[in-house]
Design a protein that fits this description.
CATH superfamily: dinb family like domain
Strand content: 5-15%
Distance between the termini: 36 Å
Order of helices and strands: HHHEEHHHEEHH
Shape: globular
CATH class: Mainly Alpha
Number of domains: 1
Number of strands: 4
CATH architecture: Up-down Bundle
């Protein structure tokens, strides 16, 4: 699809994904949030992980909107935490461990509110701020999908699609029926 048509189609999909994701997050009660997920983290930690990844996408979106072609998220660097500290991570597992430790002291209601805030903000960012040409102007990234499938696309589009994949696919089974 041409970028403008792709942008519109993905915006529609994003709205559907956010509705389902936020419905699932909103239905999780304290007891369910403390239950183990399929990967050993609690359901609350899985939601917290998504909710913490999304601010980094928001930060990257600001970079993309200002003309940066390779936002720092792509190197797992310069994550600005809620305390204003800038942090770099070796890999995604390092990021996840940091967030799980930080959120271990948080009540479920705080994680749940963060998830709503960040998912809504990311959707708005991609629909209202990041025009398709901004996403197109970013540097190519090769995304390795399950089944040894590789897709090369501008990293701006990757960030949009990986956000949807995160909410709709990767953790969907853990969030169903909670």
């Amino acid at each position: 699809m041409p970028p403008s048509k792709r942008h519109s189609a993905v915006a529609e999909l994003h709205a559907q994904v956010v509705d389902v994701y936020l419905g699932a997050v909103g239905s999780i009660q304290d007891v369910a949030a403390s239950q183990p997920s399929s990967d050993g983290r609690t359901i609350g930690q899985v939601v917290g992980h998504i909710a913490e990844w999304e601010p980094w996408v928001l930060q990257a979106g600001g970079e993309i909107a200002s003309g940066v072609v390779w936002p720092r998220i792509m190197e797992l660097s310069a994550y600005v935490d809620i305390d204003g500290q800038v942090r770099d991570f070796r890999d995604v597992e390092d990021f996840n461990a940091f967030q799980a430790t930080k959120q271990a002291r948080w009540p479920w209601s705080r994680i749940q509110a963060l998830a709503v805030r960040t998912a809504t903000a990311v959707q708005s960012l991609f629909v209202q701020v990041l025009a398709p040409e901004y996403l197109e102007e970013t540097r190519d990234y090769t995304w390795e999908l399950p089944g040894r499938v590789r897709m090369t696309l501008p990293c701006g589009w990757y960030l949009r699609l990986v956000t949807l994949e995160h909410e709709a696919v990767e953790h969907a089974d853990d969030l169903k029926g909670r």
